[in-house]
Amino acid sequence: MRLAQRMESVPRSYIREILKVTAQPDIISFAGGLPHPASFPVDAVASAAASVLEEAGPEALQYTTTEGFPPLRQWIADRYKRQGINVSPDDILITTGSQQALDLVAKACIDRGGKVVMERPGYLGAIQCFAVFGPDFVTVPLTPRGVDTDALRQAAGDAQVFYAVPSFQNPSGITYDEQTRREVADIMAETGCLLVEDNPYGELRFMGQHLPPVRAYASAPSVLLGSFSKVVSPGLRLGWVCAPQEVLNPMITAKQASDLHTPGFTQRILHRYLMDNDVDTHIASIRARYGAQRDAMVQAIRQHFPEEVAYTEPEGGMFLWCTLPEGISAEALFHKALERKVAFVPGRPFYVDETDDTFRLNFSNSSPELIEEGIARLGQCLREYLGR
Ligand code: PMP
């Protein structure tokens, strides 16, 4: 057998591996990135599915166009208009989750050996996806206000792409403030580097002032990714790319080659769901739930963690990020925490190097009571591990 070399240097998703260990029922897990199942609109999706079959019949089960179901693309474009982003439905391509959009972006925009600027730490799903295409990764640090714009200016000069999650980033929970957004938009215009803005959490803000995507400030063409995973359901696997035609066209060709089209049936079900329900009320209820869980986690960390452990206080999204004192290994801590039946994700896979003094905590999938109990256990572990 002579397998291709392409996949040899691509890391396995560390999180998927960890989830196998942390799935045991007696472990309190802050490891995954799962939305809370109580937020899934099961009954509404059931009746949307029935309506689709009743009204569209066989057409809903037929092959369809690569670009996606036109009324769903229209809905997305209309929603962007409310945020001051003027795009046409023709600028939208429906994808099988935004993860597929990352793959299509890579195929259309990243050459082997091409320079790709990543946030440090960065979304591991993007690192993994881009790694298949053999780019030269360059990282720019995140500060509490967003990406370090001086470092970005230096890195972006000869880069093909800057991949960013400016709102409630996975893994750090950090959000770019307004000035950083403007500066990023300016740097992209000055350098000709293409911004790929991934925004699955933008609508999940539970405190502070709402900010539109960087795209709203941009004068140069940019790519904006969205997803229904965190606001309706990840199991539907529905996301999208919003991009100018010159970027979208090669992505459409890549998608044809890859899976012909995103399932038409699920697109119709989702569209019907969006027509028949008040999605803003639904998203508000998710925000309220995650906001309370985030507060419980921050509160418990204040009470139980040793002072030397730094942490972010996210204003939205699903994650909080902790930094250990220098030289302390999060991976070793992970194994000690498992003995106490509590889990998190060590930070290493979120870097393109071997950094191991950070870890990610997810707060979307546990009740405030479990969060308090799990963080108390982790606090005890940390005290023992740090010798406090
Ligand atoms: N981008 C980021 C930043 C994410 O956190 C995720 C989900 N973990 C994705 C993309 C992929 O989401 P999906 O494919 O479900 O839309």
Which features would summarize this protein structure in a list?
14% strand, four-stranded antiparallel sheet, 12 helices, eight-stranded mixed sheet, alpha/beta, 14 strands, Aspartate Aminotransferase, domain 2, binds 4'-deoxy-4'-aminopyridoxal-5'-phosphate, 388 residues, single chain
Protein topology:
Elements: H1 14-22, E1 28-29, H2 42-56, H3 70-82, E2 92-95, H4 97-109, E3 115-120, H5 124-131, E4 136-143, E5 146-147, H6 149-156, E6 161-164, H7 178-191, E7 194-198, E8 223-227, E9 239-242, H8 245-259, H9 264-276, H10 279-304, E10 310-311, E11 319-323, H11 330-339, E12 342-343, E13 345-346, E14 358-362, H12 368-386
Parallel strand pairs: 1-12, 3-4, 3-6, 6-7, 7-8
Antiparallel strand pairs: 2-9, 4-5, 8-9, 10-11, 11-14, 13-14
What does the model show?
By secondary structure, the chain is of the alpha/beta class. Helix 4 crosses helix 5, helix 6 packs parallel to helix 7 and helix 10 (279-304) packs parallel to helix 12. It has helices at 14-22, 42-56, 70-82, 97-109, 124-131, 149-156, 178-191, 245-259, 264-276, 279-304, 330-339, 368-386, and strands at 28-29, 92-95, 115-120, 136-143, 146-147, 161-164, 194-198, 223-227, 239-242, 310-311, 319-323, 342-343, 345-346, 358-362. It is 42% helix and 14% strand. Strand 4 and strand 5 (146-147) form a beta hairpin. It has 12 helices and 14 strands. It has 2 domains: 5-41 and 281-385, Aspartate Aminotransferase, domain 1; 44-276, Aspartate Aminotransferase, domain 2, CATH 3.40.640. The mean pLDDT is 96. An 8-stranded mixed sheet has the order 2-9-8-7-6-3-4-5, with helices on both faces. A 4-stranded antiparallel sheet has the order 10-11-14-13, with helices on one face. 4'-deoxy-4'-aminopyridoxal-5'-phosphate binds at residues 33, 97-99, 123, 125, 165, 170, 198, 200, 227, 229, 234, 239.
